[in-house]
Write a structure and sequence with these properties.
alpha+beta; 6-stranded antiparallel β-sheet; 7-stranded antiparallel β-sheet; 20 helices; disordered N terminus; globular; about 35% helix
Length: about 625
Amino acid sequence: MIVPRLHSDRSTSLPTPSTHERHGRRLVRARRTGVGWGRAIVPLLTLTILVAGCATPEPPQEAVVSSHHLATEAGFEVLAKGGTAADAAVAVAAALSVVEPWFSSALGGGTWALYYDAETREVTSLDGVGPTGSLASVPDYADRVETPGFHQSIVPGAWDGWMMWLERYGTLDLGEVLAPATRIAREGYGVYRTMDFWLSRDANLIAERPAARAIYMPEGTLLRYGDTVVQEDLAATFDAIVAAYEDARGEGRRAAIQAARDYVYRGPIARAIADASEARGGYLTYDDLAGYEARIVPSVSIDYGDGVTVHQNPPASQGLTQLLALNVLKDLDLASFDGPDDPGAVHLQVEALKLAFADRNAFVGDPSRVDVPVDALLSDAYADDQRARIQDDDVLRHPIAAGLEVPANGARRASSAPAVDSPPPYRPPPPGVPTSTTTFHVVDRFGNAAAVTTSLGAQFLVVDGTGIHMNNRMRFLALDTDDPNRLTPGYEVRHTSNPYLATRDGRPYVLGGNTGVDTQPQGQTQQFIAVHEFGLSAQAAVERPRFVTSAFAATTYPYAASDALALERGWPDATAVGLADRGHTFTGRAIYGIANMIVQRDGRLQTGADPRQGTTFGDVR
């Protein structure tokens, strides 16, 4: 007799989609798994087939989670062909370029990502963020800092990074990897609610830009919820890159991948981007693109204890921020609190993050331009010193000094951030306000894993004839002379993308990301703590309400700071009361972002897909 046991890794059901959002999507509904707080957690039920009373060996699992079900299915399609996590990640990234084009572009955006190689058990970081254009200057940009346009675009580094992943970690040919995205672009997909929001918000920008207007106003009227989006130019661009790859395939796979890189950075795409930049007042030149190469570099990490190592992306990513907070929190015995809603546990996380952001703003920039003291910042001795600055019954208030001495050559002074006036009384924000970059994760049947956050910025800036949407990541640069993230031609911005990958006993344990500029390391810290310290499933962790502190100079202009703590709708009243008793004041609105996760427990994978966006989807197969 075959007796199936319920698979309850995804601990809650996905939100009910509309008819057109269900297309191509297999909904997985599961019971919430009750768990107690602390480390002694009842093991999650797993899908096991019992034959004649004996368990048969379970086949290897693979998992994909992303912000759109069509992108997730693109990843699975490539995995089904025998592809690795790297192959699938590129397929997901390309598909998101089609279905989430205002926040993601494999050809026009930037990416920080982590990869776990099952053969070597090594975690590396992908720096796929290009530099500021050579024509940029502080005075000119300062005059246009609040105006959207090509002057906000940096060299789009994501594509070169994806090609480096395919070369080092992939196995499939480029045409196989890009086939799902090309098909979706050509056949079309339905406008969903989040997309409808952004199209409506940026309708005036779209109307002013012929290339964007051709996609999103094809008959003179803005596409709305339920309409079909077709991106023939982008499909043709993918086809042209694949053709360049195939033309060189006879010389070997490496030569073919190089041809795909050259087509974008030293061929027709580079010339199209450079021409568009010149015509629209941007700072990018053909030479800026031709000279660019992405990098695969060592990750940075901390030992969290219990055999857990948390890996992050090095500067110029803001990834150090999460590690700085976790290094302080790891010895505070969070599991002893009465669950993740305990105001004492929340207070400690808020204060640790405030200290982490103070150090981020003081030290983190492009390491080829400023000296970032990574080893000192991540030392246990430094964490001890920072931990001693946190009080149980009071809060740190802006301006918060860095914990190390600030070098003479450069850091934003904490006091230079304008303070926001007294915040309104605590009032939860309305639900369903979409704000995000995009984050996705993949684990393949071979044990390789990819954690990705890729970014574009919503401005619907399309390069004529290509379908490529360009980034606006110069918005992350500072203008102050003494800031380590100061705008400097030819150097990288301090990029907010910073997915994390935690290993346990040398194998993937938690892959996570939370979008939303300065919210990213905050949400990620909360979700890791929820999983590791309080035993929540991946799904329960991403569904939890979030807090956001802003007690530091924000990444984007006008770099404002506020001591008010934002609490998302859903926190118990007792949590807010307990935080107020410790000195916290509140505001109702913040960017809470979209979070996606993969967690591996007891050899079983589980995904967490954020219901804040109705198209997010994760699965284990």
